[in-house]
Design a protein that fits this description.
With about 210 residues, the protein is mostly beta strands. Helix content is about 0%, strand content about 55%. The chain starts with 5 loop residues before the first strand and ends with a strand.
């Protein structure tokens, strides 16, 4: 990316997309920002434009910001695009992406099962987190501050990604007792998961390695 961060881009067939920003030199797996796109449209020329998108900055200053996301798939597998904050050119980010071999493998529960250690982040802060995925698709996790969550992870249809649904326990979870849905991708040895609140006010993001 133009910010020297690494980008993992997940686009789904329903018009949604997830953009995970990471600093490669971080001491443990963590996500700096995640952009979640809803209801985008892709034209015949390969141009993908968002109507509703939110950028969640998970490092200081933590905040959620409405953004515009444009992605150009016309020269696929090479992909380029930008994330722009309307009215603020200083916060715009351009990117170029290309597929890695691991992202070309079909998603399966056999390839994703295991225990992952890393960081769980939200606009409230970041904490060490462990997530376990079983061979039957059950997902369970716990943060260092005591939030527990359980749910399911299933291969997405037609793309190299996973659909995730979890239910949080009570406090101190950021959305206590709520059930949320999102997406996950296995990028090399790292599992990336994004679970936005239904009202888009916050998001729980996990990045961890086996």
């Amino acid at each position: 990316m133009s910010t020297q961060q690494r980008l993992t881009l997940l686009t789904k067939l329903d018009g949604s997309a997830y953009l995970f920003y990471r600093t490669p030199s971080a001491s443990r797996p963590a996500i700096d920002d995640v952009v979640i796109v809803r209801n985008a449209e892709q034209a015949k020329d390969g141009k993908y434009q968002s109507k509703q998108a939110t950028r969640y900055r998970l490092v200081q200053p933590r905040k959620a910001t409405p953004v515009q996301v444009d992605i150009d798939f016309a020269r696929s597998p090479a992909v380029s695009g930008f994330v722009a904050v309307p009215g603020d050119k200083t916060d715009n980010v351009a990117f170029n992406a290309s597929p890695r071999l691991i992202l070309g493998e079909p998603p399966s529960l056999a390839s994703v099962q295991g225990m992952y250690s890393g960081t769980g982040s939200s606009l409230q802060g970041a904490t060490a987190t462990q997530v376990t995925v079983t061979s039957s698709g059950l997902l369970a996790g716990k943060t260092a501050n005591g939030c527990e969550f359980r749910g399911t992870l299933t291969p997405s249809s037609g793309i190299t990604a996973y659909d995730v649904s979890v239910t949080y326990s009570g406090a101190p979870c950021i959305d206590a007792n709520a059930t949320v849905s999102g997406a996950a991708v296995l990028d090399e040895s790292q599992l990336l998961v994004a679970l936005p609140h239904a009202n888009r006010s916050d998001v729980f993001v996990f990045a961890g390695a086996r």
